[in-house]
């Protein structure tokens, strides 16, 4: 029905482009909306400060900023906060109005009620401000442990004629309480176990497709090298995003067709239905909330399992170990050192492709911009599934499940650090491999020791 060599080549292409988004694990927040809106957006920068190390006496600063200001001559603000948790110690004029001319300023701090009053006005009667920048800069001192909204309560933005300007506000958020999350570790655990369980059921069917092929060491090295190159291409050649969309849609549709075709007893007319539905939903619903929050995540989870099942047959224990080391090193460099991986993900975010799975943290963290969510790339799901299935083949089911538990515990610990102290993208591969590698090394050494003891010659008893 299809050429097997073409399918194998397509599988490699699928992996290369999907694992591009090995994507940094990190918190994400809802976008502010359409940048073309005529309303001025008032928000805090940074929008959220979540840091458990901010204890009593520690200070932090935020800017109350205007995004997309037009014809702004002056403003009056009342900003509020929880006075039991923080107190404002200083207020300074921001850079936005000052960059357009001289200003008159007035500030009042009321820490008993948790209010800051700020007023800034251009001295020249005809002067106006257009652009984005800080209106006022606030410095707070921490008094206790907890969370608080930083809110715009009373706002008046006006032009040179004294007429009010339209605006929308987005609250800020501060928390120094201890945060953790169960949702993403649980999702990763379930997806990995499902991949391991299904692999035994589909492996024989897929062998005919893969033609018993497997990656050699040089193939694994070449694959990681190509992924690194492609990440830089995505960042620096913006016009490639359309090509990426076509490749992703082809890869996803191919996976859906092959699995449906194989398990519908080679009925092609049934095999084309899932990819057709996927393409139609992507074409007509990708700009909707239903796609962004639900369908994209559902398809992301489905593809995470299908990619793992389809690609795991190309690896053996040796190439898995080499691939794991190289991809982790690449992930660390491109996320923590150069940041290129994060830029690549941002460059393709507008495509709304299901390359990541995003779930709300549990327990929930409700910031001023909405519920805080954590995102994990499909490549990380594939990586965990690859390690789990290869461990299953080499050491059996019990130890494989034990190794998956190790991955999840490691992921959970890293995630706690990420949520409480870093608040930045982080290499998911490192979070996973740190839980798997020590157990795999321990098991390998134990096996070798048993083998050495079993092969040791028995000495004859000394004659008396």
Explain what you see.
The chain is an alpha+beta fold and 464 residues long. The chain has two domains: 4-26 and 179-451, no CATH class; 53-175, Sandwich (Immunoglobulin-like), CATH 2.60.40.680. Helix content is 50%, strand content 23%. It is built from 13 helices and 16 strands. The strands form four sheets. A six-stranded mixed beta sheet has the order 3-12-10-5-8-7.
Quick summary of this structure?
The chain is an alpha+beta fold. It has two domains: 4-26 and 179-451, no CATH class; 53-175, Immunoglobulin-like (Sandwich), CATH 2.60.40.
Give the helix tally.
13
Count of spatially separate domains: 2
The oligomerization state is: single chain
How many β-strands, per DSSP?
Answer: 16
How much of the polypeptide forms β-strand, as a percent range?
15-25%
Q: How would you write the strand order of the largest sheet?
A: 3-12-10-5-8-7
What structural class do helix, strand and pairing data support? alpha+beta
Main beta-sheet annotation: 6 strands, mixed
Form type? elongated
Distance between the termini: 78 Å
Radius of gyration: 27 Å
What's the mean pLDDT score? Answer: 83
| Overall helicity | 40-55%
SSE string, helix = H, strand = E? HEEEEEEHEEEEEEHHHHHHHHEEEEHHH
């Amino acid at each position: 029905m299809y050429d097997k060599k073409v399918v194998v080549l397509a599988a490699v292409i699928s992996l290369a482009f999907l694992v591009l988004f090995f994507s940094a694990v990190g918190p994400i927040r809802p976008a502010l909306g359409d940048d073309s809106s005529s309303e001025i957006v008032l928000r805090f920068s940074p929008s959220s400060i979540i840091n458990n190390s901010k204890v009593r006496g520690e200070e932090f600063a935020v800017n109350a900023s205007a995004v997309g200001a037009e014809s702004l001559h002056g403003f009056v603000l009342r900003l509020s906060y929880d006075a039991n948790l923080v107190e404002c110690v200083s207020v300074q004029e921001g850079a936005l109005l000052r960059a357009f001319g001289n200003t008159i300023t007035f500030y009042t701090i009321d820490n008993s009620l948790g209010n800051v009053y700020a007023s800034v006005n251009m001295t020249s009667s005809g002067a106006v401000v257009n652009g984005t920048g800080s209106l006022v800069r606030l410095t707070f001192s921490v008094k206790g442990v907890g969370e608080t909204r930083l809110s715009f309560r009373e706002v008046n933005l006006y032009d040179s004629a004294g007429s009010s300007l339209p605006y929308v506000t987005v609250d800020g958020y501060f928390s120094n309480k201890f945060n953790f999350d169960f949702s993403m570790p649980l999702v990763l655990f379930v997806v990995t176990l499902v991949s391991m369980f299904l692999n035994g059921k589909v492996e024989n069917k897929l062998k005919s497709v893969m033609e018993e092929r497997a990656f050699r060491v040089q193939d694994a090295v070449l694959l990681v090298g190509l992924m690194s190159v492609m990440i830089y291409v995505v960042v620096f050649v913006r016009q490639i995003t359309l090509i990426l969309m076509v490749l992703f849609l082809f890869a996803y549709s191919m996976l859906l067709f092959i699995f449906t075709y194989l398990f519908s007893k080679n009925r092609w007319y049934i095999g084309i239905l899932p990819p057709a539905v996927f393409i139609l939903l992507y074409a007509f619903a990708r700009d909707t909330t239903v796609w962004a929050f639900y369908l994209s995540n559902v398809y992301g989870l489905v593809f995470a399992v299908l990619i793992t099942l389809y690609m795991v047959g190309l690896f053996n224990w040796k190439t898995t170990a080499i691939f794991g080391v190289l991809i982790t090193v690449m992930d660390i460099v491109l996320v923590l050192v150069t940041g290129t991986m994060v830029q690549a993900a941002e460059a393709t975010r507008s495509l709304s492709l299901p390359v990541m799975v995003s779930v709300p943290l549990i327990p929930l963290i409700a910031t001023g911009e909405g519920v805080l969510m954590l995102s994990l790339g499909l490549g990380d799901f594939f990586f965990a599934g690859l390690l789990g299935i290869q461990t299953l083949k080499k050491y059996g089911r019990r130890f494989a499940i034990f190794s998956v538990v190790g991955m999840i515990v490691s992921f959970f610990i890293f995630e706690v650090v990420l949520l409480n102290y870093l608040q930045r993208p982080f290499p998911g591969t490192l979070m996973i491999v740190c839980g798997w590698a020590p157990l795999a090394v321990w098991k390998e050494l134990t096996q070798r020791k048993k083998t050495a003891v079993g092969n040791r010659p028995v000495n004859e008893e000394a004659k008396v």
